[in-house]
Design goal:
By secondary structure, the protein is mainly alpha-helical. The protein is 56% helix and 9% strand. Its main location: membrane. Pathway: Protein modification; lipoprotein biosynthesis (diacylglyceryl transfer).
Length: 273
């Protein structure tokens, strides 16, 4: 564990730079860069895409923090101001981040004629890759830690060997990012790629949660498993429902122009002769 990467000197003393914060920032940068490259093929202005991403990040952090505070309401009831002290308690929820970011993206894209489904599809691979990078920060900071174990690949956290569940999540997210990029072929209903991302991540989190040191909330299930089950079912329904619709989104890959049929000009003019 290395919660603080280094101390930044300031005129008022040293300021601790957390490992989770550094890798979360790196995750944002990578996600924005990939999303910007993908939306360029849609003809969207790169500057506005960056603005959208920054606003969505703010909304996502707020949503993630609200979700964490609600889940841990008892811990914050006696000291409600701690809910605002994110630099002290780095607790966030990913599903809360998705919801908060989606609301902001919808509001921003609506004014520019960008459909939320298009935005979500463009961002999905970047979100998966960013999630993987953020998991390195959670490992260093000591978040999402696993149960005690004696497997050869265990990592020492809190004085005992544990499952490196952060690395399990990172590997799963990298696989999901690869799957999303691989299936991004052919026309499809807008939003279907994003819901596939949510579905696969919910399945991964549900399974990996069995190795985490989390209290049970509903029978044998932890709170994260309950949330993943609900979100996963919603994602599966949305993915299936959208699959029945007519394709209205082109793949975010560049296509070569098709050759003109005989007797037709490349500019689409009438036949000769």
């Amino acid at each position: 564990m290395k919660p603080v990467l280094f101390q930044l000197p300031t005129p008022f003393g040293t300021f601790p730079i957390s490992s989770f914060g550094v890798f979360l920032l790196l995750a944002f940068i990578v996600a924005i860069t990939l999303t910007r490259a993908r939306t360029r093929r849609l003809g969207w202005d790169p500057g506005e895409v960056v603005d959208l991403a920054l606003y969505a990040i703010i909304g996502g952090i707020i949503g993630a923090r609200i979700g964490y505070v609600l889940v841990n309401a008892r811990d914050f009831a006696m000291a409600p101001l701690r809910a605002l002290m994110i630099w002290v308690d780095a607790g966030l929820t990913f599903y809360g981040a998705l919801l908060g970011g989606a609301l902001v993206a919808w509001a921003y894209g609506r004014r520019r004629g960008w459909g939320l489904g298009q935005i979500a599809d463009a961002a999905a691979p970047g979100l998966a890759l960013g999630f993987a990078i953020a998991m390195i920060g959670t490992l260093l900071y000591g978040l999402n830690y696993g149960r005690a174990t004696h497997v050869p690949w265990a990592v020492v956290l809190f004085g005992e060997p544990r499952h490196p569940t952060q690395l399990y999540l990172m590997a799963a997210a990298l696989v999901i990012a690869g799957v999303l990029l691989a299936v991004d072929r052919g026309s499809r209903p807008a939003g279907r790629l994003f819901w596939l991302f949510v579905l696969l991540l919910a399945i991964a989190r549900f399974g990996i949660e069995t190795f985490m040191d989390s209290p049970r909330a509903l029978g044998p299930l932890t709170l994260a498993q309950v949330a993943s089950l609900v979100v996963g079912l919603l994602a599966a329904v949305m993915w299936l429902v959208l699959g029945r619709g007519l394709p209205d989104a082109a793949p975010l890959v560049e296509r070569q122009p098709e050759p003109a049929p005989p007797g037709m000009s490349q500019s689409g003019g009438g036949s000769h002769g």
